[in-house]
Amino acid sequence: MKKRFLSLGLAAVMAMSLTACGGSNTAETTKAAETTAADAITEGSEAADTTAAGGVFKIGGIGPVTGGAAVYGVAVQHGAELAVKEINEAGGINGAQIEFNFQDDEHDAEKSVNAYNTLKDWGMQVLMGTVTSAPCIAVADKTAADNMFQITPSGSAVECAANPNVFRICFSDPDQGAASAKYIGENKLASKVAVIYDSSDVYSSGIYEKFVEESANQGIEIVAAEAFTADSNKDFSTQLQKSKDAGAELVFLPIYYTEASLILQQASTMGFAPQFFGCDGMDGILQVENFDTKLAEGLMLLTPFAADATDDLTVKFVDSYKAAYNEVPVQFAADAYDAIYAIKAAIEDANVTPDADAGTICDALKASMLNIKLDGLTGEGMTWTEDGEPHKAPKAVKVADGAYTAM
């Protein structure tokens, strides 16, 4: 197994990685658009029975569609479903249709491995997943042992792509931390910065460590670095008070949207109004139930996707997504959409057929991922290194009038 390492060029310019409502644990998609998970099961099964003689590529997906991280998993499921629908309606991959089966892992590593085994029993040939980092690391060990091709839309921990059969769409945690510090420094957003992070989470800690390292290069003073854990993620008054007392002009939040929404609420209550700056885990904060989105006004984050972008691909995707699911897509939906199209491009480059076994397909796609160039929602002219890392540039987004707005 070849050693994997971070691309230095990527680390210098990028920032994002990771790692909504959802019903059923399984969704199979072939020809028809889905509006709910239950609809997807029925319509996908019918389509699978009527696929043409060209055969069927079986692509599996894993992510949380229930539980605290469901916003991410449902977005990934929906984004992938839209891509599968488009590809199948356009004739498939070299004439072969795609059958898509998405399993719920509740953002739990053990359940994610169980979901992977379920998909293997179903006949999966390629895995699009998982969505969040800890489950992704657990499943990546299994796909490596099985020689199953895996592309994660949003698993951002370095370990997610440590094996040669795994590629990712999102940026890794270290890249995200470095790019956030570079953006803050180069745009002179603040000279005194506080960080509130989850020391029990690999995603948050990975971003934090690289952010601190790059901040020194940018002349940014870290005036407070306040940790919390998964067991103490409700009351942030101590962390906020220390940040305020230290004179922080900006508070960097390399955390998920649930905790971020509480921090913004509590900061408002105590009259603390610095610039808040987040990462891709922040995407979804505007959908938090009972959260006053006015509190997020002015919030900034780096992301590879902005729903208000005016290019043709983004406009088409956003319109299709809103029509199918009655909401504006977040970055994770775009990540998944690009992941399915990357699989398509790699299969076409490798010229593999649906009757090939998963191991044969994996060997072919590992080589083809180094050949393809994808104009996607999350990056134009995306390419991949042999380390599984994408080459693309992040975008800065700011919440304005209750919506994400590209800067």
TrEMBL record:
UniProt-listed SUPFAM superfamilies: Periplasmic binding protein-like I
Residue ranges occupied by any Leucine-binding protein domain in the UniProt entry: 58-400
Keyword Transport: yes
Keyword field: Amino-acid transport, Signal, Transport
Pfam family, one: Peripla_BP_6
InterPro entries: BCAA_transport, Leu-bd, Leu_Ile_Val-bd, Peripla_BP_I
One GO-annotated biological process of the protein: amino acid transport
Signal peptide segment: 1-22
Family classification: Belongs to the leucine-binding protein family.
UniProt name for this protein: Branched-chain amino acid ABC transporter substrate-binding protein
